């Protein structure tokens, strides 16, 4: 049990659908992250939120829209995705961004397939 | 253009022997390095880290070595156990108060420990 949960664990959607991925952390952390892991590629950082404010957008297409209503919850809204967006989407959290590196705690991921 | 590379996609080791996983990086600004372990259907979990002011860090069966001049780090597991079979990711951070947690990951090495 990592303290970071993600739902759904698996999602299949068409290119015209709108869906959302949810992440919740129970660790009292203040920073949350979305990562994407495509087949045979390294984990790529997508978005970073610190105290509910977005601090990093790693040139992610606008068809991915993050939302962080509070420090415990992070959403990734998906619309008009492409088949190449099929990947494992991982959420992570850490205590903070300030003060140097910190360890990040990852959720189990959502396996997304875009048809 | 990967800044963190794990050139061996897989490694097979006999139980009880040493496992050595390697990682190379190109960004000289990286000053903190981490290893994560990932089992199937789970998110990565933090294993061990090392700051650039050190050249070795040990935690039980796990030791990380850092060679800054060669921009190379390695993870040694000894003795290797079947439960160590997983994908191991190397990650690096450039530090700083506001960027301390911007991790760049390698592509991973799948370790298989045979009984």
Strand content of chain A: over 45%
Mean pLDDT across every amino acid position of chain B? 92
The average pLDDT value of chain A, as a whole number, equals 91
Structural class of chain B: mainly beta
Shape of chain B: globular
Write the layout of secondary structure elements.
The complex is a heterodimer of chains A (about 120) and B (about 120).
Chain A: E1 4-7, E2 10-13, E3 18-25, E4 31-37, E5 44-50, E6 53-57, E7 64-70, E8 73-79, E9 87-94, E10 105-106, E11 110-114
Parallel strand pairs in A: 2-11
Antiparallel strand pairs in A: 1-3, 3-8, 4-5, 4-9, 5-6, 7-8, 9-10, 9-11
Chain B: E1 4-5, E2 10-14, E3 19-25, E4 32-38, E5 45-51, E6 56-59, E7 62-67, E8 72-77, E9 86-93, E10 103-105, E11 109-114
Parallel strand pairs in B: 2-11
Antiparallel strand pairs in B: 1-3, 3-8, 4-5, 4-9, 6-7, 7-8, 9-10, 9-11
Describe the structure.
The complex is a heterodimer of chains A (115) and B (115). Chain A is mainly β and 115 residues long. Chain A has no helices and eleven strands. In chain A, strands 2, 4, 5, 6, 9, 10 and 11 form a seven-stranded mixed sheet that branches. Chain A is globular. The termini of chain A are far apart. Chain B has 115 residues and is mostly beta strands. Chain B is globular and about 40 Å long. In chain B, strand 4 and strand 5 form a beta hairpin. In chain B, the strands form two sheets. In chain B, strands 2, 4, 5, 9, 10 and 11 form a six-stranded mixed sheet that branches. A five-stranded antiparallel sheet of chain B has the order 1-3-8-7-6, with no helix packed on it. Chain B contains no helices and eleven strands. The interface between A and B is medium-sized, with 29 and 28 residues.
């Amino acid at each position: 049990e990592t303290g970071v949960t993600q739902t759904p664990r698996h999602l299949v959607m068409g290119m015209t659908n709108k869906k959302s991925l949810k992440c919740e952390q129970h660790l009292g952390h203040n920073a949350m992250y979305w990562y994407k892991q495509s087949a045979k590629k390294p984990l790529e950082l997508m978005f970073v939120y610190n105290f509910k404010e977005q601090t990093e957008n790693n040139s992610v297409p606008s068809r991915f829209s993050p939302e962080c209503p509070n420090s415990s919850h992070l959403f990734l809204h998906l619309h008009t995705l492409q088949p190449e967006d099929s990947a494992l989407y991982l959420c992570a959290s850490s205590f903070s961004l300030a003060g140097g590196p910190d360890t990040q705690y990852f959720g189990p991921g959502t396996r997304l397939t875009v048809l | 253009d990967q800044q963190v590379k794990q050139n061996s996609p897989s490694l097979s080791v006999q139980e009880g022997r040493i496992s050595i996983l390697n990682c190379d990086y190109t960004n000289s600004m990286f000053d903190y390095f981490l290893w994560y372990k990932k089992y199937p259907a789970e998110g990565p979990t933090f294993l061990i880290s090392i700051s650039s002011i050190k050249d070795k860090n040990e935690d039980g069966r796990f030791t990380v070595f850092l060679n800054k001049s060669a921009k190379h780090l390695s993870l040694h597991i000894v003795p290797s156990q079947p439960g160590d079979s997983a994908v191991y990711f190397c990650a690096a951070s450039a530090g700083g108060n506001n960027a301390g947690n911007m991790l760049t990951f390698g592509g991973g090495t799948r370790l298989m420990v045979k009984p």
